[in-house]
Amino acid sequence: MRIERAINNNVVLVLDDQTKEELVLMGKGIGFAGKCGESIPSTDPRIEKRFRLDDPGEMVQYHTLLGDMEPEVIRISEKIIGLITASFGELVNRKIYFALPSHIQFVVYRLRNGMEIVNPFLYETKMCYKNEYEIAKRAADLIASAFQIRVPEEEVGFLTYHVHSAVSNVPVGQIVKFTNLINELVEQIEERRGIRISRESIDYIRLITHLRYSVERISQDRQVHNPLVAALPQQMPDAYALAQELSQLVHGYIGKPVSEDEIGFLAIHLYRLFEVFQRPGQIGS
């Protein structure tokens, strides 16, 4: 295999002389002192992982990206990826080696030029991805120190998506989409019931936690069994009707139908939530 680019000490882009495919090789020290055009044997013991980017356009994009990348961005990205692996173990989504430097480069540019970073889903992100958020805070400190800039909390939320993507194999864009969906689901619940759920309440945390895992299950075609589902339309008709309505919103976002079992679990959760608002003195706070 011929080295096309050493991304950092642990990642290189190579061209397989036999298959003519471009591959990404990962392994401790594999990119150290590696020069473009040099050969590396496929049996090199430093190779721990290898993968191919199936989309040719994506590979071209990465080549362009790496050509414009500040070396310090690559170094900081490697440190952050080290934090992720130390906290969560082996990465699932290897594209973080490209996606994270690209994101950091863009963020540094925006902050250096005084551009505002807006994250309307920051609170939901902090609640849904607590462990990832803690790593993202440490990542933001590394970026701030390396580039002498102040990294706002809104950006910590976006870094959280990259951390979660690396350990879940869910694309960052999809995580943002899911977070937006969860926000819309909560707003629809509040509108239909004429209530306001305090964002600081345990009821809100329980609700968005349930919605997060439900949305992820639906998107991944993971089935759940609800032995009570047949009786729910009669026992809690209002909650079940709203759950059905919300399932249509989920279907429209994800493009996959929501099972009756999943609707049933949402109905139970809504029923318990509405009971809180019916108790004297309870306003969801």
TrEMBL record:
SMART domains: CAT_RBD. Keywords: Repeat. Pfam families: CAT_RBD (PF03123), PRD (PF00874). Transmembrane segments: none annotated. It comes from the Bacteria. SUPFAM superfamilies: PTS-regulatory domain, PRD (SSF63520), SacY-like RNA-binding domain (SSF50151). Residues 68-173, 174-280 form the PRD domain. PANTHER family: CRYPTIC BETA-GLUCOSIDE BGL OPERON ANTITERMINATOR, PROTEIN GLCT. This is PRD domain-containing protein.
